[in-house]
Amino acid sequence: MVARSIVQIYQLQTEHEKSLKSTNEHNGIGFNSVDSFILTSFAEFYIDRGYLSPRQLEIGRKKIKKYAKQLLKIIEGGF
After folding, report:
1. 0.85 cut: is pTM over it?
2. What is the pLDDT of residue 77?
3. Residue 7 to residues 4, 42: CA-CA distances in angstroms?
C-alpha cells in the first residue's frame, strides 16, 4: 500500500519534475520540495523492481501520510 501510494503521487508529478527529482511547479499536485528527491527515487525503484526495501518502506510510510488529501482525491477521481 505504501509503495503504490508513492507511485500514485509520483505519477501526478510533471515530466519535468520527474526528470529533475524535484518540485518546481506550485500546482498543489505531487511531492513537496522536501520529499521530492527521495520519494521520486522510491517510486522509480518500485516501478523498476516491484518492491521497496524494509528501510524504504519505513521512510515511505512516515512521509506518505502528508499526502493523504491527494490520495483521497485520486480515489475519488478528482485528479
Report:
1. no
2. 82
3. 5, 8
